[in-house]
Structures are given as C-alpha cells and as structure tokens.
Give the backbone structure.
Amino acid sequence: MSGATRSPLSIVVHLSVLLLVALWTLPTAGLLISSLRDKDQLAVSGWWTALSTSTQNLVQRAASPESQVEKDGKFVIFGNLLEGQKGSVSAFGYSSREPAAFAPGQTAKLNDGEQLTVRADGSYEIVSDTRMEGTRGQRIFFTAAVPPRFTLDNYREVLSAEGIAASFVNSLTVAIPSTIIPILVAAFCAYALAWMRFPGRAILIAVVVGLLVVPLQMSLIPLLKLYNGVGAFLGVPAKTYVGIWLAHMGFGLPLAIYLLRNYMAGLPREIMESARVDGASDFDIFVKIVLPLSFPALASFAIFQFLWTWNDLLVAIVFLGTGQEQLVLTGRLVNLLGSRGGNWEILTASAFITIIVPLIVFFALQRYLVRGLLAGSVKGG
Amino acid sequence: MTGLVLKDIRKSFGAVDVIHGIDLDIKQGEFIVFVGPSGCGKSTLLRMIAGLEEITGGDLLIDGERVNDVPPSQRGIAMVFQSYALYPHMTVYENMAFGMRIARESRQEIDRRVRAAAETLQLTKYLDRLPKALSGGQRQRVAIGRAICRNPKVFLFDEPLSNLDAALRVATRIEIARLAERMADTTMIYVTHDQVEAMTLADRIVVLSAGHIEQVGAPLELYEHPDNLFVARFLGSPAMNVIPASVTATGATTTVELKGGATATLAIATAPGEAGKSASFGVRPEDLRITTDGDFLFEGTVSIVEALGEVTLLYIEGLVEGEPIIAKIPGIQPVARGESVRFTAERSKLHLFDDSGKSYRAR
Amino acid sequence: MPQLLFAIVTMMAGVLACAFYFLASNWLLDRIFPSQGLSGPKASRNLRISSAIRPWLFMLPALLALAVYLVYPVFESVRLSLHDRSGRDFVGLSNFFWMFGDGEFRQSIFNNCLWLLVVPAVSTFLGLVIAALTDRIWWGNIAKTLIFTPMAISFVGAAVIWKFVYDYRAEGSEQIGILNALVTYFGGAPEAWITLPFWNNFFLMVILIWIQTGFAMVILSAALRGIPEETLEAAVIDGASGLQIFFKIMVPQIRGTIAVVWTNITILVLKVFDIVLAMTNGQWQTQVLANLMFDWMFRGGGDFGRGAAIAVVIMVLVVPIMIWNIRNATRETGGH
Ligand SMILES: Nc1ncnc2c1ncn2[C@@H]1O[C@H](COP(=O)(O)OP(=O)(O)O)[C@@H](O)[C@H]1O
Ligand SMILES: [Mg+2]
C-alpha cells in the first residue's frame, strides 16, 4: 500500500475523498460555528470569516460631561471607545453624515468649539476651554476592526426565551418511552416467528416485510379519527403522550420485528435444542438464552427507534399537536423558521440543540447502528 | 433395566421419506455407534430418540415405556452436539448448571454435581470462564460435562469430534471411551461418519444407509463378516477390492472365475444351484500378500506405489476396468512401477457376494 | 421535569405490563394444559395444544399493534378516499377526479417524479463511489464516519443547516450563505436559490442526498468488502484496469445490494415531507405529495377525503417495491 500512496492516481483519490468529506461536514460546521458567534458579527459576515477580524461601523457615546476634569485650565473628557476590548479604530467622525471623516490621531473640531481626538487604540479625548454642559455624552462614529468574539449568548437566549428548553423535555418525553416499550413486544413476536413452528408463519413474515414500507401517510387520517373517537368516548384529550408512544410503537414494530427475527433466526439451532434437552420451555429459552444473545440486535433497533422518534416531525405534530406546550424540538424549529426566519443566531443555536442528542447517540453507538442497517434492509437476490 | 427399543421407526419431512423403518434393541450400558455416509439419516434418527424431531411412525421405548410424545427433558437423555452448543453468555459453571436450575434442584445439589463433573473432566480451573475463552477441546469437554450433570440414562452424541483437529480428536476419543467405562450403566448412542471412531468406541455398530439398517454387530464381526457389499466397502480403509466374478464350482468350497481370467477358491459353502451365477468377489487390501509361487490368486502390473513407511500401497491396473485393485503390504516393499506382481490371500479371508450384494456367508 | 418523570414512570409501567402479560399468559397456558408430571396420551395432547397456542400468545401484542396502526389504516384510508371531507358521505371516485384536475397535485406528482429519479440515483451512485474510494485510503474510516453523520440529523435540522447554506443577501452586501459567497467570489450574482422555480427542487433534493448517501455508503461498503478477493485478483491477472475491475467485476457482484439501497431510498423519497415543509412549505412550485397530503389534512379544518386520496396515491406508488421486497424475503426464508 505504501508504495502506491505516492502514485498520482492515489493523490486524486485522497483529494476527491477530502472534497467529499468537506461537502458533507462544512454545512454542519457552519451551523455550529455560527451558533457560537456574536450575533452582530453573525449577521454581517460569513461563518468562514469567524476567526478573522471584522471591520464594523459603530457608534458610541462618549462619557457624559459630568465626568469632565479640569487640567491646565482646560476641561477634558476622556475614555475608550472599545471599552477594553481588543481592536483598532481606522477612522472616526462626529456626524452620521460623515462617520469616517477623520483618521485616528487627527483632531476634529466640534461645532461648539470642543476638540475631539480619537487614537487608533480607541482612546478619545474631548477638550474644551469652557466647562461643558449637559448630561449626555457626545456621539462618536468610528470604523473599527474588531477581533472575533465567541459567546454562548445565543444558546442562553433560545433556552430561556424561545421555548427550546421545554421542547427539549417534550422530545425526551416522546422519544424514550417510544424506544423502550416496543422492544419487548417485538422481541417476543420475533422469537415466535424465528423459532416456533405454527401454521401461517411464512405468511406473517411476509406481512411484516410488507408493512415495513407502508407509508406513514396512510395511517395519519384513520388514526387521527380513531384517536378523536377514543378521546371523546373516554372523555380524555385525543392528543396525549400515551397516544404518541403507542403510535411510534406501531410504526416502529415492523422494523423491530424484522430486524430481531433475522438476528434470532441466525442464532445456532443447536443451542436452542440443547436448552430444550436441558428442560427449558419456549419461555425459558426466550428469556434466558435468546434475549441475552440478541443484545446487539436489540441495541441496533433501540438506536434506530430513538433517532427516528427524536427526529420525527410528522407524527409529533399530528398526534401531539402544535400548541406551545406540546411542541417537540423539530416542531419548534419549524415554527422558528417561520417566525424568526432572519434571526440566524436563534435558528443556528436552536438547530444545534435539536441535533446534538442524536449526534451524541450516533457517535457513541455507531457500531450498533451500522450493524442494524446491514441487517435491516431487505436483502435482494 | 434401561433399555432402548426402536420399533419400525419412520420419519418423513413432508413428502420425503428419510428413515424407512428402523428396528433396534439397545441394552442398558451398551455403547452403540451409528455410522453411515453423510445424509443417510443418522442425525435424524438420533434427534428422534432425543425428542428434537417428531417421530412420523413406529414406537420408541425407553425403559419399556413409549416415549414418542414425551418432551426431550423428560426422556432421561442428554445430548452432546457437533458444535458443542454451549450457551455463549454463560460461564462454564452456569452452562453445566442450566438444566438443573430449570429443574429447580437445590443449590447444594447443583454445586455438588457440577463440581463432580468438572473434576472428572479436568475443568475445575475453568468453571468461571465463558466458552469463548476456551479451546475447542475444552469446549467439547464442557459439553460432555453438561450432559453428565443431567445424570442421563441415555447419552447421545452427534459427531462430537468432527470440529476438532486430528490430534485432539484422538485424545477426546480416548476420553469418551474412558467415560463410557466409568459410566458403565449408562447407555451411549454415538453418531459418526468416521469408521475409526466407530470401530474403537462401539460395543455394537449400526451401519445405516439411505434410511435403513444395513447391519448391526460388534466392530470386528462387521469387519470380518460383512453381511453385504455396502458394509464390506464402508468399513476398512482403503475399501475392500471388489471384482466381478462368476461361480464355476459349488460345494464345501466355491470356485469363481474373476473378470480378467483368474480363478479363486473360497472357503464358503454354496448350493449347486448357484453355479454359473454372476457374483462379486471381494478381498481386503490388507489381506493380499505378494508371492512368487505358481499358486497365486492373480497377477497384475503395478501402476502406482505409495510408500507410507509402515505400509506400502500398490495400485494394480488391468484387472477391473477403471478401478485399480489395491494391495496394502506391511513395511517397505522393493516394488517398482511397471513391475508385474503376483498376489495371493488366505481362503478364509476372501468374500463372495451374490448379485444382489448379499454375502454368501450370511445366507 | 415532572413531565419527564411522568414519562419514565408510565414507560416502566408499560414495560412491566408487557412483561406481566407474557409471564401471566404463559403461566396460565401451562396451568390450563399441564404436561409436566403427567404422562401418556393426555400429556401429549396437552403438549400439542399448548404448543399450538403459545406462538400466538407471544405474538398477540405485536399483532394487535400492527393491526391497529398499520393494517386497519390502509383499508380505512382507501375507504375514506371514497368519501367526502367529513368521511360520512360516499362520493365515489370524485376525490380522485378532483385530484387529477388539480394543478397543485399535478405539480406534486411531477416534482415527486423528479425526486424519485434524482435522489435514489445520486445517493446510490455517490455512496458507491465513496465506499470504493474510502476503502483504499488509511483515513477511510474517519471519512466514512463524517459522511455517515448526517444520518443522525433530523430532516428539519438538515433543512435549517442547508437554508443557512443557501442564505441570500441582496447584491452588494456581504453574503453569509456559503453558496452565494462562493458564487459572488467567482464573479456571479447571488441568487435566492430556494425561490427559483424548477431548479429549487434540486436544492431541496440536495438535502436528502446529503442525508442518505451515508446510508448507501455503509451498506455498499459492506457489500464491496464481501466480494471474494480471488475474483479481483483473477481480474488483475487477466490484465483489467482499476476502473474495469470496479465496473465489470465488483459492481455486477453487488447488483442485489445496489437494488436494495435504491429501493430503500425510493421509499423514503415518497414519504419525504419535513424537508419541503421546513424549506418552502410547497411554495415556489416545490410541492410534493406527502406535504400536499399533510396540507389537506388540516387545510380549512381538514379535508379527510382528499387527504386520504393523496395517501392512497402514495401507497400505490409503494406497492411494487413492497411486492418485490416480500418476494425477496420469502425466497430468503423459504428454506428456514
Ligand atoms: N429439517 C429437514 N427438512 C427436510 N429434510 C431434512 C431435514 N433434516 C434433514 N433432512 C434430510 O434428511 C436426510 C438425513 O439427514 P441427516 O439425518 O442430517 O443425515 P446425516 O446422516 O448426515 O446426519 C438428508 O437427506 C437431509 O437432507
Ligand atoms: Mg448429521
């Protein structure tokens, strides 16, 4: 291999993979970086410039005349426009018509005879022969090169003000039970389909494979009607967490059964027979042998189901509703796209909060996910 | 009296008949080996005895009681599988204790029996290990230990050695022989396609072919007096030489003319009506001797010499079309390719089968 | 937090209830038809009966859920599609007649066809290429993980990510969307990409391709690695070039897997709804069936007849793949 590394063809391979990887990672990276930027910077420059200094036209009031001091018979106000931050002033002015009339170090004559000097480091001085009046400071316009600023403010804002925190809890509330509840149900069914003999087994397996691809859209309207009916009958709301858990369970079962059945059917037959000779019943065999041995498949399914329920939008808005109280993260994000479409600091931070949990799950348990993918797609001939 | 009786046992998978009526009496403490070529139904028969496969027809009696419909765990059997079938997520101890735990034996009893079995099989050191941390031979011993712990009346083995390498196979075979000796009251039924295992382990061998019994008997009896051509050629390696022949003289001894012109006289009595019938003449390679006498059985040209040191195999062409006659001569022989050699054999070691393959001795 | 606590408690209750059901039904069955300790014909009769019933006990909860959540809705949807908006009055095929006369529906069908043509093909092709390329470099696994990662991201999250990529600022001001920044860097004029009729469909498809290529890559990579090494070595000895080996030796051997990947993505495309909802909500001629169906479910208080009719159309599109899958699966399990 090492000999081939230097051939031109292999350089092409490296470069093209690098390009593809860039295409696949940069969009997410852009989102993450942007969500951490100062919101003023985020709105005016691309995230790829986040590490370089940005030139901004700013305005700042000088300290109020009350802070003037007398020095050598003159009255002086001084301070710093950049307020201790790093950066440099490249031009300044005192009117909005000419915000960059003077270069740093020059002295501008204000209308009332006061003299304004701004230096490159942002320090300024207003000098007057007479005591200055008033309580409001002079407005100073300046152009400054500001170094990059990163902050968690965006996250603070969306978590406190935009309802993201509540939606986060809602998403967890939907996803965790929807992941756990189907596992046992599916596992028993899968065991029966894999290892028990009964008439109609082949047909049932075919039905499960068929249901694997039934579009969710088919189920929405009938189930919505059903839920409304049941809700009215029992005198409870139609849109509840229990309802959505059961819905997610129903929609997830075909994959769960298919995945687990395939895995269980691959376990060695002699182990089951040995257990049977040892006196184990079907129930014993399932609980004591098959279930522990199927852990990898169970884990695969659980990851799938968690990602699917966490990332789902459709089932959540149909069966849980779109009220402020019930919105899950995906639904909240869609709402924000509508109402705060231009506020990228809010969108990026919210989006990142939405995708961080699945990303963690993904990176931690990727191995099981891949295994599940390989087992879960119907094999072709 | 823990005997095992098979009465006209039959098995079909759907429309395919696999076992065509097996009758067999097995005495308590006997070591029975089922041999036969792959696919002849050995495993199916054993699994029917175990209760893992439903019996399509006939009766299976253990201890005089019909057990066709009794679940495996209540038949008093234990089984050792080809792939060991250890529970991968349980330690050696748990593997051996599993059956007793299902049966809700007391903790002390379980412990006592597991330790006793582990002791016999030198597994005490490994009790806390998972199967994947054991070697093939150790796994096989655990499988045997698990079976011992069940205290079975009948011990079933399905090709237990075929996943082991050659050296381990011999060692484990000897181990099983010892075990059988120690558990003299336990009936053992052992399935293999390996005739060496069959010959060395069995009290009686059952030779199966295509779902029926060819012959039952003690190993040497089958070797010396095969009932038919199938058994004759199945046991012994290299297989018995078979030459088409026709009967020329009958009486207290029988004379046949072999294909290719030679004649042979066998110590077998035949009825006069047999004269002129076509038959198959058989002689084992190890029964052939080189001779320089005029009184030889046949003469042929050596086409291949395989010198193995302890024996020399000579392949002789020209007697039977397409199939060489093989002679297995002890020691190193100064025979060269292309040489013409004369062979002879003791009369009592010659075999003759009629045109349906049945031995004249067994008639 | 109390809500989460409630969820966890209910979840445990649910799991315990399931466990209890399985235990109790199994115990009951052994009680009603005992075989342990008995002998003779009665025991064997009981054994036969209970082993005929037991599988159904094991499967009952799953079968019930499947029936309620997937099987019944299929039939009910077909029924509703023949009824009016409230689902009470039978209207025959008039929902379907309306549908085929509706401009928005025809737009959706057209767009769905575009999606069906482009997304599975591009995802599978890219997945195959990436799988083949990454198998030959030392950092291939890292590259694969990075390309696989979008699988974990929700469609809505991905929509936000890509909306940011496509972000548009008027000409002259600094672009913060990377696509327009690149366009202006190379001297072009910035565009509001997702409002460009027809072409905007492709900008939406990019999102699904971005998500699904990882899936295709993982499966195809495993298939490629399953190809016997000897066939490749034989081809090398026969003097085949790298590309020839790839297209003439490797690809034909994993044809089945390619078909599987293709159909899986096709199914997903038919169901895609979140991306369109989040990016355009069907404006600027980007409507697709799934979003249109969702729209009709709630539009003007909800027209269940028309919504169901659209759902039936989606189902009909899925049926060929369903049959193909079932045939594959039964062939595979036939011997078992
Ligand atoms: N479950 C089954 N279904 C159909 N045919 C089977 C089954 N099990 C075994 N057979 C057939 O029965 C015959 C005997 O098999 P087996 O008992 O396993 O042979 P062996 O002597 O090699 O152990 C074979 O032809 C095999 O194909
Ligand atoms: Mg066998």
